[in-house]
Amino acid sequence: MVAPGAVLRADEGAPFYVCKGVNIQDNVVLHGLFNQFVDVNGKKYSIYIDSHCSISHCVIIHGPSYVGKKSFIGFRSTIHNSQIGRNCFVGTHCVIQDSTVAEFCHVGIDAKILGVVVERERCIPDGMLVNTQSIADSLPKISKEQADKDKLFNTHVVDINKKKLRKLYSERRRLREEVISLEMA
Q1: What confidence category does residue 3 fall into, taking pLDDT thresholds of 50, 70 and 90?
Q2: Which residues are the active-site residues?
């Protein structure tokens, strides 16, 4: 689902790939750059968003970037030249630039991750600046409770948007059939 006001701007000839079950919410901007790619299964993309992700309102994803399966990117966050692993939760108003965040990570509200590799199953607290590899290496493991909460939250957001989309398509189908029956009358 792509909501109103979203911009998928592959104007520099850089391919995007958005998998099934992804919801791209209002005023999201995806923008790729010429000749800058992430490699996914031997193919090159400026931006690749894997299945069942939620890209929430006003997010900017600037390629080359990758968002892994079942991840949630929070309101007004910016992802630039970065890779986010599967089942990650990125809170509201985060900046992730020139970095890799491995799978099953929780990035707290207003966190900044700049030029580092964050290992899997890490928790970045709200407001934290992670701008050296030594800080990234010292991040605590995510608790099972937080990991379960993050997974449940993204699943809930994806399911709600699927239901909205089904309802929208059903209503469109009903209206189309109504117009056709009026035209035939």
Answers
A1: confident
A2: 12
